[in-house]
Amino acid sequence: MNMANLLLLARFGIAGGSVTLIGYLVFLTSVAMGLHYILASIGAWVASVCIGFFAHRHLTFSGHAIRRSPMLRYLGICLMQLLVGTATLALMIDVFGLVPWIAYPANVLLTATISYVLMRRAMYMAHPAKSL
């Protein structure tokens, strides 16, 4: 892996980590207030999508050429992430018996990996945009 890819991955980690922390706080607060974990997860997802698009666009992939319709592509990736994340969260809690506050961050490892790969390939071109 070259230095440019390492820096990109580091920026993804910073932006994604911040967005994930906000989503996790929304999730924990919602569960503590008595909301079912699936609804709490969806609420966390909505908060993360709203913040994440701008965080990744301006921090993670700043300087990269943006493909057309970035918001639609981003929402498509996020919807896929929601479906996979909700299914695996339910599996971790209902089948394997993990408590929600442990299952949620464990689930993030899977969904963050999927998100990074899809965003990198579907939203942003591999090479930074050239300055005019």
From TrEMBL:
Top-level taxon of origin = Bacteria
Q: Where are the transmembrane segments?
A: 7-28, 34-54, 74-93, 99-119
List localization entries.
Answer: Membrane
**What's any one GO cellular component for it?**
plasma membrane
**Sorted UniProt keywords:** Membrane, Transmembrane, Transmembrane helix
Q: Name one GO biological process term.
A: polysaccharide biosynthetic process
UniProt domain GtrA/DPMS transmembrane: residue ranges:
11-122
Please name the Pfam families in this protein's record: GtrA_DPMS_TM
Q: How does it sit in the membrane?
A: Multi-pass membrane protein
Show the PANTHER family listed in the entry: PROPHAGE BACTOPRENOL-LINKED GLUCOSE TRANSLOCASE HOMOLOG (PTHR38459)
Q: Which family does it belong to?
A: Belongs to the GtrA family.
Provide the protein name: Putative flippase GtrA
**Species whose genome carries this gene:** Sphingobium scionense
